[in-house]
């Protein structure tokens, strides 16, 4: 199996374990699991891939395209639970993939496939077979509009591991994280690169989120270090500030929480003397990555400040910290890991909240500047309010 997925699962698939893989339609769940099946089959396991959404011919074409074909990889298209269990009896696999559990129905239960009673019955039957025969099983699950797993909540309680497959359709990056894991931690994240040729695990995805091919520093950019689970990711934030011709200036964001960006903008205008209230402000992340944690506030503020004053930051600088309504920079967690990742990638200056280094030393070659508020951060970053 992929080392990145093994890491999320806590070391790999355990015989008899049942894993529920959830994600939006078209995000790449089937491609990932087909790649997993191909790897497992080439390692000597007998694998059965059951699809209820496509024909076996369609699945085979995809397997051929991504290089997942193997002698011990068996494909079948079934939507009846009895037929599915019959294939399991016949093939006697070590690994079973059911894509998806909402498309399989039981003749013993009233209702269409995907209903609460049907999903409960199908999942219980598949889990029973997996436990009795020691078969590792991967169940694909649909999600609702709000991102939660479709079907009864009991489905998540029945399985051993619940894995969320996330990503933006317009970006190649995919993140896999466990929200429940009986065999390992739930704070690990696997990063994958999805392309037409298949899906590849990324050991070092930080380069996807930085601009390349640029010479001199550009005003309106700032690099931050976010934490996805326990993994630090270096991400670049870009901003453009322009005079507004509208009565209500525009605030547009991509990859960032718009309400949080609006709050940071208001704090800058009121507390740091950087006047952006009457300007259009556009803020985006590089590479399509989504940043939700408050630790990116300081980078957002410095990017907007640089775009406003038309002055770039000191080259090779990173910044992280939460911005409060009083303009203060609040501490964030995981500081040693963030600093180590910045130093590893060649950054030489880090702007952090006061007290961030109380529990340890800065990595070699990294100058750490502690700031108490936004005004101080703008000064040490060589920015001046206009």
From TrEMBL:
PANTHER family in the record: DNA REPAIR PROTEIN RADA (PTHR32472), DNA REPAIR PROTEIN RADA-LIKE PROTEIN (PTHR32472:SF10)
Alphabetical list of Gene3D superfamilies matching this protein: 3.30.230.10, P-loop containing nucleotide triphosphate hydrolases
Name recorded for this polypeptide: DNA repair protein RadA
Transmembrane domains' residue ranges: none
Record function comment: DNA-dependent ATPase involved in processing of recombination intermediates, plays a role in repairing DNA breaks. Stimulates the branch migration of RecA-mediated strand transfer reactions, allowing the 3' invading strand to extend heteroduplex DNA faster. Binds ssDNA in the presence of ADP but not other nucleotides, has ATPase activity that is stimulated by ssDNA and various branched DNA structures, but inhibited by SSB. Does not have RecA's homology-searching function.
Keyword DNA repair tagged: yes
Keywords assigned by UniProt, alphabetized: ATP-binding, DNA damage, DNA repair, DNA-binding, Hydrolase, Metal-binding, Nucleotide-binding, Stress response, Zinc, Zinc-finger
InterPro entries given in the database record: AAA+_ATPase (IPR003593), DNA_repair_RadA (IPR004504), P-loop_NTPase (IPR027417), RecA_ATP-bd (IPR020588), Ribosomal_Su5_D2-typ_SF (IPR020568), Ribsml_uS5_D2-typ_fold_subgr (IPR014721)
Keyword DNA repair (UniProt): yes
This protein's encoding gene: radA
Domain RecA family profile: 1-143
């Amino acid at each position: 199996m992929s080392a990145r997925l093994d890491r999320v699962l806590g070391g790999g698939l355990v015989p008899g374990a049942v894993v529920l893989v959830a994600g939006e339609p078209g995000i790449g769940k089937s491609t990932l699991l087909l790649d997993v099946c191909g790897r497992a089959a080439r390692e000597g396991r007998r694998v059965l891939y059951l699809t209820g959404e496509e024909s076996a011919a369609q699945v085979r074409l995809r397997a051929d395209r991504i290089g997942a074909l193997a002698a011990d990889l068996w494909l079948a298209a079934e939507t009846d639970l009895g037929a599915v269990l019959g294939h399991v009896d016949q093939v006697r696999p070590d690994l079973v993939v059911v894509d998806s559990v909402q498309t399989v129905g039981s003749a013993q239960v009233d209702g269409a496939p995907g209903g609460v009673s049907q999903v409960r019955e199908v999942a219980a039957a598949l889990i029973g077979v997996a436990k009795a025969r020691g078969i590792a099983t991967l169940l694909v699950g649909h999600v609702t509009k709000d991102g939660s797993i479709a079907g009864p909540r009991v489905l998540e309680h029945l399985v051993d591991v619940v894995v969320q497959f996330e990503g933006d359709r317009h970006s190649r990056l995919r993140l896999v994280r466990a929200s429940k894991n009986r065999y390992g931690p739930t704070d690990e994240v696997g990063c994958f690169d999805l392309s037409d040729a298949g899906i590849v695990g990324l050991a070092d995805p930080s380069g996807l989120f930085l601009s390349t091919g640029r010479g001199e520093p550009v005003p309106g950019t700032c690099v931050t270090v976010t934490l996805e689970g326990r993994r630090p990711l270096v991400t670049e934030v870009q901003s453009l500030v322009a005079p507004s011709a509208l009565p209500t200036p525009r605030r547009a964001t991509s990859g960032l929480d718009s309400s949080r960006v609006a709050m940071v903008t208001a704090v800058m205008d009121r507390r740091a003397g950087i006047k952006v209230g009457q300007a259009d402000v556009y803020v985006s992340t590089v590479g399509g990555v989504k940043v939700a944690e408050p630790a990116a506030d300081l980078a957002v503020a410095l990017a907007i400040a640089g775009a406003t004053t038309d002055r770039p930051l000191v080259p090779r600088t990173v910044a992280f910290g939460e911005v409060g309504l009083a303009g203060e920079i609040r501490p964030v967690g995981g500081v040693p890991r963030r600093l180590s990742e910045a130093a590893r990638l060649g950054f030489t200056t880090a702007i952090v909240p006061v007290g961030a280094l109380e529990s340890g030393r800065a990595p070699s070659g990294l100058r750490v500047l502690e700031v108490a508020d936004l005004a101080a951060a703008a000064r040490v970053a060589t920015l001046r309010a206009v």
